[in-house]
Each structure stands twice: as C-alpha cells, then as structure tokens.
Specification:
Blueprint (H helix, E strand, L loop, with lengths): L6 E6 L5 H10 L5 E5 L11 H15 L4 E6 L2 H14 L4 E2 L2 H11 L4 E6 L1 H6 L1 H9 L4 E6 L3 H6 L8 H15 L5 E5 L7 H7 L4 E4 H15 L11 E5 L3 H12 L7 E3 L3
Parallel strand pairs: 1-2, 1-3, 2-9, 3-4, 5-6, 5-7, 7-8, 9-10
This protein binds D-glutamic acid.
Length: 268
C-alpha cells in the first residue's frame, strides 16, 4: 500500500501540463503535487518517437527520485508515444490523458464520428483512434494535426474575440466538421485554453478536454484504491529543465492565477 500523502507526480514537455494540475487543485485540493516541465526540450509534438521516449523516460526518472503514489503523463504527445515504454521501465501506477478522453468521447458521441485535434506526433501515433475504437468498434475517428495551436497559446493568443485565433481555428475545424463529427477531443495540454474559442465556432459539437477527463479518471482511481490524501492542505513543487522565471510567467497563463510556489531548474 502506497503512502496516501505521497506526491502525485505530473510531467509535461513544459507548462501546458498545468491545465491538468489546475483540475487536480480544483477536484482534489489536498493532494501533494510534484510537477516536472521539460522546458529545455519543448515542444515534444514535433519530435521523433525515439526522442519523445527518451525525454519522457528521463522526466519520470527524475520524478521517481521522490516518493510518488502515482504518476500522471499530462502530455498527450508523451502519453501517445511513450506510455508503453514508461510502464515497462517504472514500477508505479501510471495515469494518462489519452485513454480517459477517448473513453469519454466514445461514450458521449451519438453518431460515432469523432474528431481529434492534437500535435503532429500524437496524430502520427494513432493512439486516440485506437483507444476510441477499443471502447466503440463502430467509431469513425478523424485526427488532425494542428501545429499552429501550441505556439499560439504559448504567445497568449487564445481568446475567442481574437481574429487570429478564430481564423486559424476555423481552418482546422473545417477539416473536421466536413466529416460530420458530433464530438471533438482537444487532445493536447494547451488546447483547453482554446475551449471557448472552439465552442463558439462549433456550438453544436460536444467538446472533450483531455486534461479534465484525465483528472476525473485519476480521482476515480484514487478513490477506488483508497489513495486519496487524508491530510488537509497541500504541498506543490515545480521543477523545470530550463529557465525558472520563464516557466513562472507561462504558468500564470495555464493556471489563470499566480504560481504560489518556488520553481527550481534542474538538469535531467
Ligand atoms: N504537451 C504537448 C501535448 O499535450 C503539447 C506541447 C508540445 O508539443 O510539447 O501534446
């Protein structure tokens, strides 16, 4: 039995994984969180499978130096490419973003036509389509790489009133709505910030956020295995592989509040 008050380890290629942390803070405020953002190697979504596996292994090796009760792969790209490698390499409960979002999409879609917006590496892996068809044999999955969206959000351009945002989104969404999708998965850590902009362009489509579904699934699993922290209050520690101040500034975008903890730069 793991220590209930040990950390939930969360890693991502950068600050985007804080969209997952935000949901943990909201849904499980007493959990201790240990976050690693591999900012020196961001973005993962444009990298090769070999590189992503190597980076993800190093990220988890770093977190594994602390007492963890579970690990969350917050990065869709890392989860879709490196999940099996991490499961083989590390003996700990590993949660991800792909499976919970795929399950939700398979469940809520009425016509079985599901769109995926994700990074190039996630789309290339076909992980979402495979998981969705695992839950729903008849599903038709249309995956689209949206390489302009991560840089857009990193530059704080995500508001629905922003004409650049809506123009780029419209171009991507047209390529998915043409197939008659009724459900759309935002399959990347950064995309939850775009949820209002997306929803305003496709008001009739059900949107699934991988960050939110990941945390609903994590909470259910921790409850089922009696692993929820029983100590009020929480400790949150943040580590990055590049500049700590840049991360701190970026963090505010993803958390929509100031990061009230120290950020420490480490080499992994
Ligand atoms: N964290 C990545 C993901 O969720 C997006 C940023 C990147 O490409 O590294 O796919």
């Amino acid at each position: 039995m793991k220590n209930k008050n040990a950390y939930i380890g969360v890693f991502d290629s950068g600050a985007g994984g804080l969209t997952v942390v935000k949901h943990i803070m909201e849904m499980m405020p007493d959990e201790n969180i240990l976050y690693f953002g591999d900012t020196a190697h961001l973005p993962y979504g444009t990298k090769s499978e070999k590189q992503i596996k190597e980076f993800a292994t190093n990220d988890v090796a770093f977190l594994n130096g602390f007492e963890l009760k579970s690990l969350v792969i917050a990065c869709n790209t890392a989860d879709s490419v490196a999940r099996e490698t991490l499961i083989k390499e590390f003996d700990m409960p590993i949660y991800g973003v792909i499976d919970p979002a795929a399950k939700k999409a398979a469940t809520v879609s009425k016509n079985g036509k599901i769109g995926i917006m994700a990074t190039t590496a996630t789309v290339r892996s076909d992980a979402y389509a495979r998981r969705i068809r695992h839950y729903r044999k008849d599903a038709e999955v249309f995956s689209l790489a949206c390489p302009l969206l991560v840089p857009l959000v990193e530059n704080r351009r995500y508001k629905k009133e922003d004409i650049v945002v809506s123009t780029i989104l419209q171009e991507y969404l047209d390529q998915l709505t043409v197939h008659g999708i009724d459900t759309l998965v935002l399959g990347c850590t950064h995309y939850p910030l775009l949820i209002d902009a997306v929803q305003s362009l496709v008001p009739d489509i059900t949107i699934v956020s991988s960050s939110e579904e990941a945390v609903i699934n994590l909470k259910n699993s921790l409850e089922a295995t009696r692993q929820i922290s029983d100590t009020p209050g929480s400790e949150r520690r943040f580590y990055v592989s590049d500049d700590a101040d840049a991360f701190r500034q970026n963090a505010e975008v993803f958390l929509n509040e100031k990061l009230g903890s120290e950020v420490i730069q480490v080499s992994v």
